[in-house]
Amino acid sequence: MDYVFAPPAVPSLPVIGSGARFPLRRVFCIGRNYAEHAREMGAEVASRAAPVFFCKPADAVVADGADVPYPSATADLHHEVEMVVALGAGGRDIPADRALERVYGYGVGLDLTRRDLQAAAKAKSLPWDTAKAFDHSAPVSALRRAADVGHPARARLTLDVNGVRRQDADIADMVFTVPEIVAELSRLFELKAGDLIFTGTPAGVAALARGDRFRAELAGVAVLEGRIA
How many Cβ atoms are within 10 Å of 201's Cβ, its own excluded? Predict the structure, then answer.
C-alpha cells in the first residue's frame, strides 16, 4: 500500500522474559480510584457508581527507561504512580467475572500531569486533554505476563523521587478492581488487544523538576526507573 508519507512506528513495550514486544493500541486511564488521592485533590471520594475515565495517545508512552522530557506550557508537572494493565484480547460488554481472561500482563507507570493546566480546566469545567494527554506523559515499565505472575489483587505500589519515598499504597485499596474497570470500559468502548489501562494513583502526588530521578515499583511485578530531562 502506498502512503502519502511513511507511517509512524507502532509504539510498544518490552515483555519480561520474552524477546517479543507488546504493540500498543489505546491508553485508557481511570481517575480518583484511590479514596485518599481523591481527598488530597479536594474531590469527592470516588463513587462506586460513577468511574471517571480519560485517555492518552499511545505515542505518549515512554518505554525502556528512556529520559522523559519536561513538558512545555507548564510550571507544575506532577507524578502519579499507577499499576498498568495490558490487554491481550478485548470485546464489548465484558462481564467482570470474565475480564481477567483478557489481561495479557501487568506493569507500573506514571500518569504525568500538567497540574496547573488541569486546575485551570477544572475551574472552567473544561476537558483535561492538555493536562493529561501531552507528549511523553506516560512512562511505563516492561510488562510481566499474567501467565508468569498471575493476577495480583494485593501488591505494594510505590514511587521514590531522588531516593525519597513519595507514594506508597496497596492496589487492594483501589475503589474499582481490575475486573470492574475492564468491564466498565468495555461498556463504553470496544476493547482490543494492545490496549493499556492505567488503574489510578494513591495519595502523595507532587511536583517533578528537571533532573529528578524516579523509581516506581509494583512489588513482585515490575520496576520503572527514569529521569526528567
Answer: 30
